Automatic annotation (TrEMBL):
The chain crosses the membrane at residues 96-116, 165-184, 196-213, 219-238, 258-276, 282-303. This is Stage II sporulation protein M. It holds the Pfam family SpoIIM. The lineage of its organism: Bacteria, Pseudomonadati, Bacteroidota, Sphingobacteriia, Sphingobacteriales. Coiled coil: none annotated. It comes from Pedobacter psychrophilus. Keywords: Membrane, Transmembrane, Transmembrane helix. The keyword Transmembrane helix applies.
Amino acid sequence: MKEALFVKRNAQKWKDFEQKQPQNTDELAEKYIELTDDLAYSKTFYPNSSTTKYLNGITSGFHQSIYKNKKESKSRIVTFWKTELPLLFYQYRKQLLYSFLFFIVAVVIGAASAKFDDNFVRLVMGDGYINMTNENIAKGDPFAVYKQAGEMEMFVQIALNNIRVAFYTFIAGIIFSFGTVIVLFRNGIMLGSFQYFFFSKGLGWASVLTIWLHGTLEISSIVIAGAAGLILGNSILFPGTLPRKTSILMGSKNSIKIAIGLVPLFLIAAFIEGFITRHTAMPIYLSLSVLIISALFIIWYTIIQPKKIYFKANNGTTKN
């Protein structure tokens, strides 16, 4: 789209935004997302134009209005889960995609390495775990590891570990995004080799029905934490037309919000692993139900709903 047409389509909207900022928190957040989208588009196609500088000025004003210290409404937590977090997923959809792709590539590398090197799984998972699993397979209970501790004990341990992994994945982004990519690759390679190990034992389908009961939410959360890390790192590397300090502040706050938003997912995943996964003999339809519902929820909340909220806030319009 030519710059003149872009300006013509949006000039009145920008003027209205500039003259009167919304007082409602939800509306202010929605308009801010819309402005950052316009700014991103302008920076991509007209990086040195007056339009980009103009949008940068308006966006900075909205940013200050949103993040200045003020008393939060009682419905703030509802707004966060219902609107703010989904809008962040839409705003940073590219980072989510990149995180997913990095992880998938690592999974493929891990599976391929395990296939062509018999010692690779032991190198990644450790001799202790592999020996224990082989013993469990010989006993006819390959997933006995999920039954070794009590439900509540497992729930607490797993929840704390999952939150630790997510925080580490996110905070590693401060090393110019490279740290997060390394963590994503490490976890992806572990998953790929781990999953291939069970397929090589003729337990592929059984492992999917068992491990992915909790793994669907757990792995999805790691990918989302990776996106948060990329947001943090990119705010340092690529401030665009924003002052670097402003870019880092904005990226840090938004990435922290996404990281915090993962806590309920990890708690649910830990609950499933601690209380449900141990029932390895449950009917297939129950396992599939939990797995499919978890997958559909992640797709709906991170992809479908964010797009729906964004389009609704912008009267069904988007950039061409």
